[in-house]
Amino acid sequence: MVIKVFLASLSGSTAKQQDVVGFLEALKIDYAQLDIASNEDNRMWMRENVPGEKKPTNGIPLPPQIFNEEMYCGDYETFFEAKEDNTVYEFLGLTPPPGSKEAQQAENTQKLHNGSGTEEHLDDDTTKKEIVEAEQNGDAHIAELEEDDPDKKAETDAQDDIAEEEEPAEDDEESRKPAEEEEQEEGEEDRAEDELVSEEEEEELRELEEEEEQASEED
Prior knowledge:
Distance between the termini: 158 Å
Pfam families: SH3BGR
Organism: Cyprinus carpio (Common carp)
Family: Belongs to the SH3BGR family.
Structural class: alpha+beta
Protein name: SH3 domain-binding glutamic acid-rich-like protein
Mean pLDDT: 78
């Protein structure tokens, strides 16, 4: 593709034309200068191919006018804006060379466009990391407070000891339950044995009384 720059060697806008040409040379972009002052075909072709909405009110576009083959790129004003924005290659319809500012801008834009989902994932990871760091910082802050305030450390240790003592207390209560149940069962067994003994004693007493009565009757 060849960039066509339509110029007028006798035009009063020579400075603008030289600005376009000098910038293209600095970027090492191949281009062709087409003089409309000395060549009627160039002048007619330029006028016919500049889009109607880009023409001035009198319908006659002024040089410099820039094309990429048959595709219209713009005039000096739009070229200047592209130069200020580092988008000259885009303005000319060319691919920016690797390492150029415009290529880096395009790469960054592509990364931002493709990285929306990645950013959400990173946000999740960042949130998790912040939580972990907050917990670690909280522990570190407590440790610092304990170092600065021995009474605070003693209170914390006491609370830990109480918590440790409360846990075995629950175990002791559970262990006491089976022991109480065993004692209750043993008591019931003892009562049953006592009742059995009492019945045997009563039976023996009745037998003795009957024997005594028989003996008295015989007497």
